[in-house]
Specification:
Blueprint lengths: L2 E4 L5 H10 L5 E3 L2 H5 L3 E4 L4 H10 L3 H9 L4 E4 L1 H6 E5 L11 E6 L10 E5 L8 E5 L4 E5 L4 E6 L2 E7 L2 E4 L10 H13 L1
Parallel strand pairs: 1-2, 1-3, 3-4, 4-12, 5-6
Antiparallel strand pairs: 6-9, 7-8, 10-11, 11-12
């Protein structure tokens, strides 16, 4: 199985390192052809406005939506969660998320950079808490009925799954804890 990391902008190098540490040999995805060659994909945190523009200019948006709709396992963190969401508050009118997971999210919903925080998260399927790093994190304001909340902070889902799509408000790649990357890889292998 070949796992890709969307490498248009953002924290793709940290995800690449985390996946490598799990024993996967990840590949960077920058073109539609790169995308066609992967069996699973991580969409990193970064600047969602820039990432959405780069999805269009690199002509990856349409094939990405089609691949995910056809079952490509995907893990979106922070900005990746925003990109995969149904609706995005506080974006520009011309910003349209991919609409693939039934979530309405607010960009920087927990506050600006100065309001960044860490929290121990009880995650369904993990035996002990995971330290979540929240930096200008999106807030899930509405969670659709088909979305499973795997972890929450103050009653808001911060790790959610809908079928083949896993998203987090936080940055698992900024810790030394590889359990979420391993969980994603294991689920992607099981889906093969």
């Amino acid at each position: 199985m070949k796992v890709g990391v969307l490498a248009l902008q953002g924290a793709f190098a940290s995800h690449h390192a985390a996946l490598t540490a799990t024993g996967v040999n990840p590949t960077e995805v920058r073109t539609p052809q790169d995308l066609a060659d992967v069996d699973a994909l991580v969409i990193p945190g970064g600047e969602s406005t820039t990432m959405l523009m780069l999805l269009d200019s690199s002509q990856i948006r349409t094939p990405l939506v089609e691949r995910i709709q056809n079952g490509l396992p995907v893990f979106g963190t922070c900005a990746g969660m925003i990109l995969l969401s149904t609706n995005m508050a506080d974006g520009r009118p011309d910003q349209q998320p991919l609409g693939l997971i039934d979530l309405d999210v607010r960009r920087n919903g927990y506050g600006r950079q100065i309001a960044s925080f860490e929290a121990d998260l009880d995650i369904s399927g993990l035996d002990h808490p995971f330290r979540g790093v929240f930096i200008r994190a999106p807030l899930a304001e509405r969670i659709g009925p088909k979305v499973e909340v795997l972890a929450s902070v103050d009653g808001h889902g911060v790790l959610c799954q809908q079928e083949n799509i896993l998203v987090s408000s936080f940055h698992p790649e900024l810790t030394n804890d590889l359990r979420l990357h391993q969980l994603f890889v294991d689920r992607a292998f099981a889906a093969q």
